[in-house]
Write a structure and sequence with these properties.
alpha+beta
Length: about 80
């Protein structure tokens, strides 16, 4: 399970944050007034992964949205797709 403590809101404000968990990779990046979260299979890097294999969702760019973001990441992993 991905924990909130592993995801740094302050880091995302400056640089994209990448990570992986049991076959699923994630890419978190600040995009204007939101944080874009992308999950994809742990086969290739973000750039080389085909777009049709990526699942994306946007969250408000506020610290309080981190709980929802982490919950979504865990739901994506539990979906069995990865």
């Amino acid at each position: 399970m991905i924990c909130k403590e592993e995801i740094s809101f302050n880091f995302i404000q400056k640089e994209p944050l990448t990570g992986s968990y049991q076959g699923m990779r994630y890419y978190l990046v600040k995009s204007g007034d939101c944080i874009r979260a992308v999950v994809y299979p742990d086969k290739f890097c973000f750039v080389k992964t085909p777009e049709e294999q990526k699942v994306m969702k946007e969250f408000p760019n506020v610290p309080d949205s981190m709980d929802e973001l982490v919950r979504w990441l865990n739901e994506q992993h539990e979906s069995g797709r990865y």
